[in-house]
Amino acid sequence: MTRDGFGVRRLFATRRRRTMVIGALVAVVLLVVAGGVTVAVMPAPLARVLGIHDTQVDHACVPATPQTPLGVAAGSGLTTLSDADLARTLDMTAEGGMRWIRFDVPWSSVEATRGQYDWAATDRVVDAARARGLTILGIVDTTPTWARLPGALDKEFSLPNDTAAFGNFAGLAARRYADRITAWEVWNEPNIVNFAAPAPDVAVYGRMLSAASIAIRTNAAPGVTIVTAGLSPAVDGGGNIAPTRFLSTLYRVADSASWDAVGIHPYSYPYLPLDSSSKSFNAFAQLPALYATMRRNGDGAKKLWVTEYGAPTGGTSKQRVSEQFQADSLWSAIMSTRSRGHFGPFFVYSLRDAGTDTSDVEDNFGLLRNDFSPKKAYGAVRAAADCR
Known about the structure:
Elements: E1 30-32, E2 38-40, H1 44-49, E3 70-75, H2 83-95, E4 100-106, H3 107-110, H4 120-131, E5 135-141, H5 163-176, E6 183-186, H6 202-219, E7 225-228, H7 243-253, E8 261-264, H8 287-296, E9 303-309, H9 323-338, E10 343-348, H10 376-385
Parallel strand pairs: 3-4, 3-10, 4-5, 5-6, 6-7, 8-9, 9-10
Antiparallel strand pairs: 1-2
Helix pairs in contact: 5-6, 6-7, 7-8, 9-10
Protein name: Beta-xylosidase
Organism: Williamsia herbipolensis
Transmembrane segments: 21-42
């Protein structure tokens, strides 16, 4: 296992976040709002596209609803933490107003040998999260060596050579955690090469989703929610498939009854989420097109779940943002999604910096520094959770 964002570098560390040309940032006007959180003025053109009739992001704070809770995207690293660090991580998640937590239930680890299951590491995290009243979004993902495709035997995120075997594992996980996990995300970012080796294939993912959906609904508690894999903010090229094209194709090759919500990772850094000048490279700005795809296919009543969103306070000069910008970006994105009726939970990536290397972008997405000290964004998320 590679190390991840909770003191170990996550499985997702090698990816990017998207291929993009970095231009000059557009100047924004800053406005100080309650709680000392600074937010940015939204450019009017995109505000109109998104149905917001004011150029300010905050609207004096948009309250959360039961359908729009905050969560944290934790990836795979929770299972490797000491008991003390796991407790501190989950405590600070809850104290930060994030009532959901998203993490992997990895097929590759649980069933490393076909037919032999080791649930101990996942059990520990699930039980610790539920003990704190956190709601879990489980991600069923990764492929054990014995189930990988010939061209991706060394890739943990190989597409499986047997979608029925993948579905069987999803069903076993749903049965084991039926009383503790009520929402499942099927895979992670299948529209990019790093998470769909040897290459993204919408038809294969559609079969995976169908097999997992049937098995989960058969074994989970009634009312379980199934979310499509959060799509990466990729652009077409190099084997990657842009989110809207991936979703459009998925509607053609799979039965939409297989899912209850659509997952998306609308990263926008180094731009603010509602910066209309950056629309070509800003996945957040493309959310209206994604939802329009859902509506065209009769899925307008379903929700978009933001299962990852964040910004790094380290990395190269073209990647990193200031701690203030990170706070602004999260506040803006959270308030924007709440102001529409077609969004579900919003998961911040991530809680804690993966490390202390300020030149490594993947070390610096946390709301907390690696030593658990809070950045401004932790306060911004806490303030967003407290909006009334």
